[in-house]
Structure formats: C-alpha cells, structure tokens
Amino acid sequence: MTSQITRGLLIAAFCGVTTLAYASWLRPAAAVVGSEGLDYCQTPVARSLTTSSTGSQDLLLFLFGMTQTHNR
Length: 72
Fold this sequence. Notes:
- This protein has helices spanning 2-25, 58-70.
- By secondary structure, it is mainly alpha-helical.
- The chain has a domain at 1-28.
- The radius of gyration is 27 Å and the shape is elongated.
- The mean pLDDT is 74.
C-alpha cells in the first residue's frame, strides 16, 4: 500500500514540475516596444528607404547554387 501512495505522490510531483516547466517555457507574444508618448522608450525615426528597382542578375544564380549545395 505504501508503494502505491509513494507512486501517486511521485506522479503528482512530476505533473507539478512539468506544469511549472511548461509555464516558464512560454514566451510572451510580440508587442510594441516603443511609443511616441514615452520619452524613455523611443522608436527609430521613420525615414524613406530608397531601393534599386533592378536587382542583381547573379542573385538568382547564387540562390539556386545555395539550394543545390544544401541538398547534397
């Protein structure tokens, strides 16, 4: 009878430890890290980014080569 009680207590302890480990493993969701109303948490200044409309001709060849190397 005592072995059954011990086994039950160990299973309950295992479930408790597993629950605590799972709860500590959860990460918070994505959130806003800055606001204009807060002086101590400023976001970067918005600026216009200029990108070239013509891409590199070798980029597709490079990506294809990388995928072929990865599959070996």
